[in-house]
Amino acid sequence: MFANLSDRLTASFKQLRGKGRLSEADIDATVSEIRRALLEADVALPVVREFAANVRERAKGAEVSQALNPGQQVVKIVNAELVEILGGESRDLNFAKHPPTVIMLAGLQGSGKTTLAGKLGLWLKDQGHTPLLVAADLQRPGAVDQLQIVGERAGVPVWAPEPGSGVGDPITVARSGVQQAHDKQHSVVIVDTAGRLGVDAEMMQQAVDVRDATDPDEILFVLDAMIGQDAVTTAQSFADGVGFSGVVLSKLDGDARGGAALSVRGVTGKPVLFASVGEKLTDFERFHPDRMASRILD
Ligand code: GDP
């Protein structure tokens, strides 16, 4: 991911090599190049516009520097702007004052929610938490079994309806799962919810009902970074329909153009907390805007 964007940005900086100072024409030409590179990477238009305007403004206001040549100055400005659109500081999970902390996962089917439940469970367990996973995705055939498998692999218990118990209602499962976490003193409960292939009213309503039944401390919207430009409209629909407090970018190991990752913060105003970078349970990390920016400009 980002290979193309990195190449394009690096090429635009190279044009400034050997210049004594940054002229207005240099700045305009470089900003146009950056704009094109971002659009080509599928970054959302409003985000591109703001990015370009900010880079232009900072470059024009930049002092003549003894230490940095114009190319280096622009790299520094673009780096700072990338950190900014990626969310500035990284943010930790919000833990409840009185456990259990309830974390609800939302997102389209296939976005990586069930996998994430296992990854996050393992990650939390390694930090001394005692998580419980709740299988409230009763829509997708096999989702309950899949959660049980990832739970087993992660060594994290799973709350699921008894096979044949007739409980077909995700709200009941979610509510009883949170109750179970209270009763058994789990410090965190992670609620996996159903997603459809596309956004629809029924799915949104179910997510709202699960939200209202569990009163989550965090709602994490799981966004498949591979879905390109659709990512922005999907994120917007979830922000409007259910609301969320943070984002997890999944499949960042793929070869998509990276626009989703760069747009989601600007479009929804919500921070990216984690990145999922593969199919294994350990392919998971905190999201650090500064590290991501450096990776893009490397
Ligand atoms: P859900 O429908 O939202 O619960 O999605 P799943 O957790 O079942 O994930 C859908 C598919 O994406 C599965 O084949 C996962 O193995 C795969 N997947 C999930 N996260 C990642 C990731 O970060 N990278 C890659 N390459 N694949 C992933």
What is the quaternary state of this protein?
single chain
Secondary structure: helix percent: 40-55%
User: What would you call the structural class?
Assistant: alpha/beta
Q: What fraction of the residues are assigned to beta strands by DSSP?
A: 5-15%
How can the largest sheet be summarized?
A: 8 strands, mixed
Distance between the termini: 13 Å
Q: Strand sequence of the main sheet, in spatial order?
A: 3-2-4-1-5-6-7-8
Give the overall form.
elongated
Average pLDDT works out at 91
Catalytic activity: GTP + H2O = GDP + phosphate + H(+)
Domain SRP54-type proteins GTP-binding: 271-284
Protein name: Signal recognition particle protein
EC number: 3.6.5.4
Q: What order do the helices and strands come in, and which of them pair?
A:
Elements lengths: L2 H12 L9 H17 L4 H17 L8 H16 L15 E6 L6 H14 L4 E6 L6 H12 L3 E2 L10 H14 L4 E6 L7 H14 L3 E7 L5 H12 L4 E5 L8 H10 L3 E5 L7 E3 L2 H9 L1
Parallel strand pairs: 1-4, 1-5, 2-3, 2-4, 5-6, 6-7
Antiparallel strand pairs: 7-8
Helix pairs in contact: 1-2, 2-3, 3-4, 4-11, 5-6, 7-8, 9-10
The structure holds guanosine-5'-diphosphate.
